[in-house]
Design a protein that fits this description.
Layout: E1 3-9, H1 15-29, E2 35-41, H2 53-61, H3 77-80, E3 83-86, H4 89-97, E4 108-111, H5 130-152
Helix pairs in contact: 1-5, 2-5
Length: 156
């Protein structure tokens, strides 16, 4: 059975594309191939755009493949994904109000940070420098492994 995961942030050009790429990469490193990962934003501001240049730079530096075109969360995401992981509380609240949430949702919708004891949100690096994107990357590695530990079993 395939595990399907949607990673969500505000604009879908910084945090969630990094999260998508890192989660997919960490799963592959564990030999988990039955996972489908995508990302989306709660806002429509960047629909169709490539990830932020700093997102691409950080993933490139870490040799993590990334290919994504920004999109907004759709009502159908709540029925087609098993897990919807949000970057922060604002994204979580937006999804809790989303019409798709009320139409037979099967998705577990959670703050991604809730998979670690510190329950820490992923800060938006958009208005900062490359260091913020590197921090997002590092946090996504930890969150990916914590998530995979819970849904697919501990690393061996």
């Amino acid at each position: 059975m395939t595990i399907s995961v949607l990673v969500v942030c505000l604009g879908n050009i910084c945090r969630s594309p990094i999260g998508e790429a890192v989660l997919r990469n960490e799963a592959l490193k564990r030999g988990i191939t039955n996972i489908h990962v995508d990302s989306a934003g709660t806002a429509a501001a960047f629909i169709g755009e490539d990830p932020d240049e700093r997102t691409l730079e950080v993933c490139g530096t870490k040799s993590v493949p990334i290919s994504h075109s920004a999109r907004q969360v759709r009502a159908s995401d709540f029925t087609s994904f098993d897990y919807i992981l949000t970057a922060d509380g604002s994204n979580l609240r937006a999804l809790e109000r989303h019409v798709g949430r009320r139409e037979g949702s099967k998705a577990v919708v959670r703050l991604w940070g809730s998979y670690l004891p510190d329950n820490k949100p992923i800060q938006d690096p958009y208005y900062g420098g490359l260091d913020g994107f590197t921090e997002v990357y590092e946090q996504c590695v930890k969150l990916s492994n914590a998530f995979l530990d819970q849904v697919a079993g501990k690393k061996s």
